[in-house]
Amino acid sequence: MAFTLKSELIISLVLILGAWAWHAMSVRPLHDPTVAEQHEQWMANYGRTYNDLQEKAKRQRFLQRTCSSLKISTSPGNRTFQLGLNQFSDLTNEEFQSKPATSFSHQNLTGDVPDNIDWVKKGVVNAIKDQGNCGSCWAFSVVAAVEGIVGITNGTPPVLSEQQLIDCDTTNYGCSGGYPDNAFKYIVQNQGIASEDSYPYEGVDGTCDATKAAEHAAQIKGFTDVPSGEDELMKAVAQQPVSVIISSGCQEFQSYSGGVFNSECGQQLDHAVVVVGYGTSEEGTDFWKIRNSWGEQWGERGYMRIQRGRGSSEGICRVASKASYPTA
């Protein structure tokens, strides 16, 4: 979507917030001591604090509803994934979807592609990060993709700065969302991007530090948009980690805790992640492996597997509708 936006821009000026799906669930009276105890334990697990008792009571009710919803939602059926509590469980789905988000000429890759690939196991994907309360998933997606191609090219992936993109890329919207392609273009025009050590993550909108931004730890020559469709995405991911924009606003995505995700999340593209591989589960289900930016406590230690080859050509959660990757 980067350079030829026009209709795309109108279709979804969806600023990739980092989509956070938040559960609304229903249940036991607040005076039930087990509810309070469960909330206290959840707060301790996720480091949550509240401004006052009124806010705490409200969030306790939301967590209670989430717990009830999970009990209803975990019936087997055709589901191939698991749900569970995580850092978003005291939010309603409406709150989750109201957070800031994102939107977006792929070369014709030819030749056979492998049956599976995992760039994490190949050592070119860095540790999972957490964007926190900043709608900066677009920056995390772009940085991970750049780290990946530099790692493939040079042998070791650098740890690069998302904060530089938030502060310095004026074509995007910082913690209010952004477009991966615009961020790739910024890195090209800036002739590189700084390391995370040089320009550390703050998780808030800041003023661009030109001195830090000039301390380049990695460079790219450009970027390429991937045509829509899982076959095209597979060709690209066989070469390197790929930035994608997906639909993530459903409750199931919010509470995903493992397995191969096979539930649709609507049509709105609202969250940027990185596809770091694909393969087939032990049960025989083909999947995409994505790297999220919500910390290791979400999903499969920060990763998610989404069913591949099911439904429309764009895939589950529209994973193959808006993809791009940097060129080095």
UniProtKB/TrEMBL annotation:
<dbReference type="InterPro" id="IPR000668">
    <property type="entry name" value="Peptidase_C1A_C"/>
</dbReference>
<dbReference type="GO" id="GO:0051603">
    <property type="term" value="P:proteolysis involved in protein catabolic process"/>
</dbReference>
<dbReference type="InterPro" id="IPR025660">
    <property type="entry name" value="Pept_his_AS"/>
</dbReference>
<keyword id="KW-1015">Disulfide bond</keyword>
<comment type="similarity">
    <text>Belongs to the peptidase C1 family.</text>
</comment>
<keyword id="KW-0645">Protease</keyword>
<keyword id="KW-0378">Hydrolase</keyword>
<dbReference type="GO" id="GO:0004197">
    <property type="term" value="F:cysteine-type endopeptidase activity"/>
</dbReference>
<dbReference type="Pfam" id="PF08246">
    <property type="entry name" value="Inhibitor_I29"/>
</dbReference>
<dbReference type="GO" id="GO:0005764">
    <property type="term" value="C:lysosome"/>
</dbReference>
<dbReference type="InterPro" id="IPR013201">
    <property type="entry name" value="Prot_inhib_I29"/>
</dbReference>
<dbReference type="InterPro" id="IPR000169">
    <property type="entry name" value="Pept_cys_AS"/>
</dbReference>
<dbReference type="Pfam" id="PF00112">
    <property type="entry name" value="Peptidase_C1"/>
</dbReference>
<dbReference type="InterPro" id="IPR039417">
    <property type="entry name" value="Peptidase_C1A_papain-like"/>
</dbReference>
<dbReference type="InterPro" id="IPR038765">
    <property type="entry name" value="Papain-like_cys_pep_sf"/>
</dbReference>
<feature type="domain" description="Cathepsin propeptide inhibitor">
    <location>
        <begin position="39"/>
        <end position="96"/>
    </location>
</feature>
<protein>
    <recommendedName>
        <fullName>Peptidase C1A papain C-terminal domain-containing protein</fullName>
    </recommendedName>
</protein>
<feature type="domain" description="Peptidase C1A papain C-terminal">
    <location>
        <begin position="113"/>
        <end position="327"/>
    </location>
</feature>
<dbReference type="InterPro" id="IPR013128">
    <property type="entry name" value="Peptidase_C1A"/>
</dbReference>
<feature type="signal peptide">
    <location>
        <begin position="1"/>
        <end position="21"/>
    </location>
</feature>
<dbReference type="GO" id="GO:0005615">
    <property type="term" value="C:extracellular space"/>
</dbReference>
<keyword id="KW-0788">Thiol protease</keyword>
<keyword id="KW-0732">Signal</keyword>
